[in-house]
Amino acid sequence: MSRIGIGAAVLAAMLLAACGGGTPDFGAATSSTQLRPTVWTSEGRSFNSCSLSPACSGNPYAPFFASSTVAPPNGATLSGIVRLEVRGNEMANVELLPGSGYMPRYGVFNRTGDRTVAWLDLDTTRLPNGPVTMRVSAFNVPAGQPGAAEIVAMPARTWNINNATPPAANFAASVVTAPANGAVVSGITRLEIRGSGIANAELLPATGYTPRLATFNVSADRTMAWVDLDTRTLPDGARDVRISAYNVMEGQAGATEIIAMPARRWTVSNGTGAFQAAVTMAPVNGEVVSGRVRLEVRGRGMRNVELLPASGYTPRLGAFNIDGNGSFAWLEFDTASVAGGLRDVRISAFDVAPGQPNAREIIAMPVRQWDLR
Fold first, then answer.
1. Domains, the chain, ordered by start
2. Backbone angles phi, psi at 352, to 5 degrees
3. Is 70 exceeded by the pLDDT of residue 41?
4. Which of 62, 133, 266, 344 has an alpha carbon 20 to 30 Å from 235's alpha carbon atom?
């Protein structure tokens, strides 16, 4: 064979290796807006590595790709903490989801800064024992943003949850710090419960589940939950409340409720009189917040409402619109207007216009941490 022929053969081999060789375990890509390239997986379905390689032309999704690298096999029995891992490129959001559909969301993966590795330590004790079918999906935009392309990094697998004792058997909660029945409360008041297996705790009305008056912080070992309640977020007067604890996180199925503090009547007395303010719409503590988000506050006598850092008054992250009678305030908060990342914020209402002296402040939303994207 001539030197030219040998060179052509080598070049052809290199091209084949770049656009067809190997069989990594990439999940099948799906999109509601346009067709995806066909992807073969190592589970017996066809695979075309060129369709996921940024080096190959003609792929509108390059360089977005994702593949499950650490996960129990289909049919595995799980207990305790289980590590899940995905590797790829330009992964803006990775979630553990049901085999089909998007609710409930079982977990949101942590990601490296370069968006190439995502991982989740799944606590199976928060799930009921028995079979459960899950998939891992990666998206090229943050949660809640439109136009997302989805790659199923781990196609649906059925796992058998089998912890030594069902979560409910290890679930206990009782109040240890809270004002007594009939107490007069004002300012910041610490509420605390202790027990085991606590995944979520809330301050609620004596009956029903709305409005939710506060969401507790929960310790890593799930034995304690606490919140520093700013009673200035509540109107003055008598209020009947309870504290409820749950063995699963908010929004998850199979919740068991323990009333850690049976109904007590507290009299809120902050001297606010005709000035009242409480948040009625805002992301919960720990939520990923991206794009434009609606924030709302309702009350009386509001003349200025601001989105602020956890402490201090600068920088002001947003100024609310207020209706003519000072009873309703709203803000279309655009996360693109501030630096991204974890941020502790509060919403404060004032009874005078910005810049005027002798302002009284009500913290309409006590400090919450948002992950701004």
1. 24-161 (2.60.40.10), 167-268 (2.60.40.10), 276-372 (2.60.40)
2. -130, 165
3. no
4. 344
